[in-house]
Amino acid sequence: MSEPRVQSDVDLFSPDVVADPFPVLAELREKSAAVYMSKYEFWLLSRYEDVREATGDWEAFTSARGVALRQDFNDFLKGGVLANDPPEHDRLRAILSDKLAPRALKDVRNEIQAYAAAVAAEHTAKGSFDGYKDIAAVYPINVISDLIGLPVEDREKFHPGADATFAGFGPITQYLQEHFQEMVTYQQWIPTMADRSKLTPGKWGAVMMDAVDEGRIALDDAVASLNAYLTAGMDTTVNALSATFALFAERPEIWSAVREDRGLLRQVLEEVLRLESPVTGFFRIATQDIQIDGTPIPAGGRVMLHWAAANRDPRHYPDPDTFDLHRNPLDHLAFGYGVHGCPGRGIAILEMTALFEAFIPLVEAFELSGPIVRGKNPVVRSLDAVPLTVKAN
């Protein structure tokens, strides 16, 4: 016999919960494997094994019927790589598969490392900077824009627009209302990516337009997919970089350990991604009646796969709220999992690794010069300020 439905009226998108979500998520995680969130009428999965399994099971938990909470936003996302399942999803991803393969990353590694070295040298020379505003909100935007082949103009609008767009995956909150114009401006700009005169030949955007010309993909689907790659290529990296700067300033012994052994840097980055989970989660629709640890979810039910909660599940990660330098959690869910796992994971890790490797010979210590300010986006876990001074070598 199925267990009765466990229900909660907690608003996961309220400012109070967004400011400190993990105690609330821990309580919900212990209540039940699946909790019905009555305010917005969806089921919450927050345990690691359940979230991983559901994320990998696209047939039972479909993305094609909506990865956002609201139907109007799902209609907007329709056709792109994010809001599709196989075989259409595979066809869309295949267009850029060569560009995202490990061999292709070797080709762009030198470019990214050179840019990272310039960024590190410039800001070390300044002596003080904001890890979020001056680097994290600029460096990855330029990297992903160059990979797509976008012009330099208008890039300052990208991150505010992408951040507001991510807020659109949830309910209509005060935050979304306050940032609505940034989202509108960004989404009005997105179709211009179809303009070949603005795209660098051979880069991702041009390759996608070639596929349109060859009849392999519709123009609207190509633009929607480029939108997904651009938006996703910013926020995870932007916010992981910010959190890593904050970690190195608050825990100087970790930066010292990395400087002594560069091999630890990748472990640090993966642990930051697990602990912070910049994109908290996406939604799916159950295609059939499903049992989650005895709890029924009906066909047609909207389900939130909460990666941030899963990544702090003590069933999977001992002492999950603590940063562990030697944990090396390569199985974390910050990039999703399965067919919908983030295709840009390799690039994100390359960007972050290149940047901090560039700082290693230049900076002995990062120190906070003011308070860290936590962001208020209800879908993206972010920082709005990480003021730093550096102790140069």
What key phrases describe this protein's structure?
393 residues; alpha+beta; 3-stranded antiparallel sheet
Write the layout of secondary structure elements.
Layout: E1 6-8, H1 15-19, H2 22-31, E2 34-37, E3 42-45, H3 48-56, E4 61-62, H4 71-77, H5 88-94, H6 97-100, H7 102-126, E5 128-130, H8 131-136, H9 139-148, H10 158-167, H11 174-178, H12 180-189, H13 204-213, H14 219-250, H15 252-260, H16 265-276, E6 281-286, E7 290-292, E8 295-297, E9 302-306, H17 307-310, H18 345-359, E10 363-368, E11 373-374, E12 383-385, E13 387-392
Parallel strand pairs: 1-2, 3-9
Antiparallel strand pairs: 2-3, 4-6, 5-13, 6-9, 7-8, 10-13, 11-12
Helix pairs in contact: 7-18, 9-14, 10-12, 10-14, 13-14, 14-15, 14-16, 14-18
Summarize the structure.
By secondary structure, this protein is α+β, with helices and mostly antiparallel strands. Helices cover 48% and strands 13% of the residues.
The overall average pLDDT, rounded, is 93
Rg to the nearest angstrom?
21 Å
Indicate the overall shape. globular
Question: Which residues form runs of ≥5 with pLDDT under 50?
Answer: none
Count every helix, treating DSSP H or I runs of 4 or more residues as helices: 18
| Share in β-strands | 5-15%
Percent helix? 40-55%
